[in-house]
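The records we work with from here on pair a chain with its fold. Taken together, the C-alpha cells spell out the fold as the letters spell out the chain. The record below shows the convention in full.
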Amino acid sequence: MAGEDTPSPILEAPLLPLHDEPIQQTPNINSFTITSSILNLKNFYVILGPLLSIIICLLVKLDAPTTSTKMVGVIVWVFTWWITEAVPLPVTSMCPLFLFPLFGIASADTVAHSYMDDVIALVLGSFILALAVERYNVHKRLALNITLVFCGDPLNPAMLLLGLCATTFFVSMWVHNVIAAVMMMPVATGILHRLPPANEQSELMNKFNRAVILTVVYATQIGGISTITGTGPMAFAEKMVLCVFGLLIILWMTRRISDDLPGWGVLFHGLVGDGSISVLAAVLLFIIPNMKQNGEKLMNWNECKKLPWNLILLLGAGFALADGVQSSGLADVLSKALEFLKDVPYLAIVPAVTLLCSIITEIVTSNAATTTLLVPLLYHIAKTMHLHPLLLMIPGGIATEFAFWLPTSTPSNVVGFATGHIEIKDMLKVGVPLKVVGIFVLSLLMPTLGSIVYGTNDGTQ
C-alpha cells in the first residue's frame, strides 16, 4: 500500500530523549520573593475576615442566643471579603454554605434554599430575557431613541444622563425595583455599545460608562422607569422579543393590583410569584421560532452561557445572610437596639431613624424584609415617646430604599453589577454621598412638609 514504507513521525518520535539535553534551570527563589508572596495586602485581607469573626465570637456578648453573636461574626467575615475582594466575589458568596453549619446558625439544607427563591428566579429569568434583547439588538434600538429624544446631535453627556435618569425614575413608581432595573439596564448597555471599545476609551469616557450604569441602578431605587420602542422597521425576531418583554411586564403589573382589585394571581390562590412569571417568559424564548433558520428559536442554551452565574451566587448569599439575621435572633437584637431612640431629642429623632434604617438595609438584602422588621418597632417607639407614628414610620420605610452601597444590598443592584462596568468601589464612591444626601433631605422634609401632609404634629405631646 502506498505510504507503507513511510514511518509515522509520531511512532518514530522517542518517548524519552536519546541524548542528553540541557535541562533548563528554574530561577532561584530567594527568601525575599517568598516573603513578598506571602506577606502582601491581599493575603492580609484574607486573614482579616476570619480573624475579625473569631474576635467577635470570643469578645462580643449580646443579650440574645449565642447564634446571634456568631451571625455577627459571619456577616463581618463575608462583608470584609466582599469589600476588600480578598477572594473572588462568587467564592465569597458561597461561604455561607459552610459558615452557617460550622457556626451552628442553620443546617446546610436550610442555607442552600436561600440560593434559589422567587426573587432569584425572577432575576435569572430576567437575565435570560435581557440576553435575548441583546442578541437581536433591541437594546440598541431603545438606546438610540433615548439618545435622540434627550440629546440630539452632537451628544450631550449631561443631558443623556438626565434623560436616562428621568426615564428610569418615572415608571419604577409602578413596578418592582428588579423589574425596573431589568427593563432599563439593556438600554444603558445599548448606549455604551455606541461608544468606542473599552481599550480605546479615555479615563473620562470610562467614568462616563460607570455613570450610565449607576444612573439606572440608583434611579431605579429612587423613583421610576420607562422604555421607548423604536419606530423603524423591525425583524420578526425583534418583534417577538419585544412581545415577550411586553407580556412579561403586563403579567408582572397585573398579578396583584391592589387589595380591592387582587389581579389574576388570585386565580392561582397566590401561589404564583414574580419569579414564576419571569421563568415562564424565559421558557417562551426557547419555544418561539425566530424565522431566520429552520427550527431555530429566539434563544438557545449556548447564549445562556453568558449568564452571570457569579452574581446569582452573590444575590443568593445576600438572601442567606438576611435569613440568618432572622433565624439567629440577631433581628431581635437589632430591634432592641433601636429602643434607645426613646431618649433621642425630638429634632434628632428623624435623622437617627433614617440613618439606622438606611444602614440596616445594606445588611438585609430584601428592602421589604427590612421594612417588615423595622416599621412595627418604630410604631411602638413612637407611641412610647407620644409622637405621631408616621413621624418615624415614613422616614424609616423610605430609608430602607437607600440601599446604595453594595451589590447585595438589594436585587436591583445586582442587575447593574452584572454588566461588568462597575465595581464595589464605584458603588461606594457614589453610594456614600448619595445616602448622606438622602438622609439629609428626608430629615429636613419629614418634620416640615410631612407635618403638613400627614399631620404628624397632631400626635406630639
Residues 6-13, 224-231 have pLDDT under 50 and may be disordered. The CA atoms of residues 8 and 14 lie 12 Å apart. The longest helix spans residues 424-453.
